[in-house]
Design brief:
- By secondary structure, the protein is mainly alpha-helical.
- It is 43% helix and 7% strand.
- Strands 1-2 form a two-stranded antiparallel sheet. Strands 3-4 form a two-stranded parallel sheet.
- The mean pLDDT is 87.
């Protein structure tokens, strides 16, 4: 899910059936960003900086290389910027389509999810006037 930071609207959604890694889903979806667009992602998108140069992702610690205080500070700043995405996901979960197990036809899941995203965008537009 791609969320605009200024308006908090959902720009793009991509779905797949089964367990699929987020980065693989992103690569297969052919969603591309402009070169000057800042992309802030979580650690599930390691390697995205090779595809998109203007990417910020948190640094992971290893046994040999623990995080420094500066790395921890940078990770906290990125998390505070990413909190908008997590809040949007939380608001979508009140529709229960992604919070609970989906028991209807898989074929229509993407359609229904996109309709819920449109309802969310409409609600945001009515509330903020964007």
């Amino acid at each position: 899910m791609v969320v605009d930071k200024q308006t908090a609207k959902i720009i793009c959604t991509t779905l797949s059936n089964g367990k699929r890694h987020d980065f693989r889903l992103l690569k297969e979806s052919n969603v591309r960003c402009k070169k000057e667009t800042l992309v802030i992602v979580d650690t599930g998108y390691q390697g995205l900086q090779k595809l998109h140069a203007y990417t910020q992702l948190p640094k992971k610690k290893t046994r040999r290389n623990p995080l420094t205080c500066n790395d921890k500070k940078n990770n906290r700043e990125l998390a505070s910027k990413r909190v908008l995405n997590e809040n949007v996901i939380g608001k979508l979960k009140r529709f229960k389509i992604i919070a609970d197990r989906y028991r209807n036809r898989r074929k229509r899941f993407a359609l229904r999810f996109n309709l819920i995203a449109a309802i969310y965008n409409l609600e945001i537009e009515n509330r903020t006037g964007f």
